Amino acid sequence: MRVERRDDGNLVFGYLDTATADLSGASDTVLVRARAGDEGYAADMRPSRFGALSGCDISGEQEIRVMPRPSPAAPRPGHLLGLLVSGRGELEQDGRRAVLAPGDFVLYTGARPFRLELGTSHRYFLLSLDAGTAGQLARADGAVTANAELPRSPSGRVLAAVLGELAERAHGFGPLARRDMGEHVSAILRTLLREAGGAGAASGTGSAGVLERILAYVDEHLAEDLSPGTIAAAHHISVRHLHALFRESGVTVSDHVRRRRLERIRRDLVDPSLAHLPAYVLAARRGLGEASHFSRVFRAEFGSSPRAVREQARVRPEP
Predict the structure, then answer these.
(1) Closest CA to 226 of 199, 264, 194
(2) 275-317: per-residue pLDDT in tens?
(3) Three-class HEC string of the chain
(4) Which end of the chain has fewer CB atoms surrounding its CB within 10 Å, N or C?
(5) Distance CA 193, CA 186 (A)
(6) Angle, nearest 10°, between helix axes 175-196 and 154-169?
(7) pLDDT in tens, 243-260
(8) Is the pLDDT assigned to residue 72 strictly greater than 70?
(9) CA distance 166 to 242
(10) Residues near 178 by Cβ (< 8 Å), separated by ≥ 6?
């Protein structure tokens, strides 16, 4: 990481985007201003990687204000998930202000102005989001950035607990465990985003039980025909009832099936024991047999091609 002293503050480059050779073009460049007349900036920054997620554990003693300052030459800044481990903090973006206590997390994006303030003796754990989760956040139309209510929801409480453990144990995991943990965080966050969009669990204990059995059935039969008619017949319900169950959960049947297939394929792509199998074979084993269609929907979901995901897992070192 590089810090450049300027009249208006300190430019910090590459605390998340550690793979960028030219840090002046890092997508995560921020301007940090220290308070109380201390113009310099010093912090302990420990980068890490969890599969598709880049992370950084930041500890400092100064009271600071952070604002985005990406270089015009840098890729478009991404979406971020920050957890306040200790100290006090506040984030403002999109007209909302979230006051953070230890254990609270917050979502925001470097593509729009934000103001993050951290008090003295702070520790802040930050993750970049994978392309698929970031796309879902972007589709939320700014309703979840700087939203102080997210950590209070059921999924939010689970996510906060997982992030807290991840922050404490990040450097105790091996490369494969880190990758798995990144996928778990992304999955919980996507659930939270669906809930924040007005989608909860299916109403009624009976309906919830039916939906649970359907979700398990889908996971167990990804290589088979999972059309709405087939799924409905296997559970002795009408197709209309099936669509209603998923609608209450904020997703369509076909979208859920596609996402589960793609998530399993992505996991297979980074599994060293399956490295000898071509991507199209792995896709066919999960029910996506047409190669060009598979590549297209995979890139749309994760923002990278299957080959790029596999190559990243093969050659990119884990900090």
Answers:
(1) 264
(2) 999 999 999 999 998 888 899 899 888 777 898 888 877 654 4
(3) CEEEEECCEEEEECCCCCCCCCHHHCCCCEEEEECCCCCCCCCEEEEEEECCEEEEEEEECCCEEEEECCCCCCCCCCEEEEEEEECCEEEEECCEEEEECCCCEEEEECCCCCEEEECCCEEEEEEECCHHHHHHHHHCCCCCCCCCCHHHCHHHHHHHHHHHHHHHHHHHCCHHHHHHHHHHHHHHHHHHHHHHCCCCCCCCHHHHHHHHHHHHHHHHCCCCCCCHHHHHHHCCCCHHHHHHHHHHCCCCHHHHHHHHHHHHHHHHHCCHHHCCCCHHHHHHHCCCCCHHHHHHHHHHHHCCCHHHHHHHHHHCCCC
(4) C
(5) 10
(6) 160
(7) 998 887 778 899 899 989
(8) no
(9) 36
(10) 48, 49, 50, 51, 170, 318
- Per-residue tokens: 162: 């997982």
How many residues are given for the chain? 319
What is the per-residue pLDDT for 201?
45
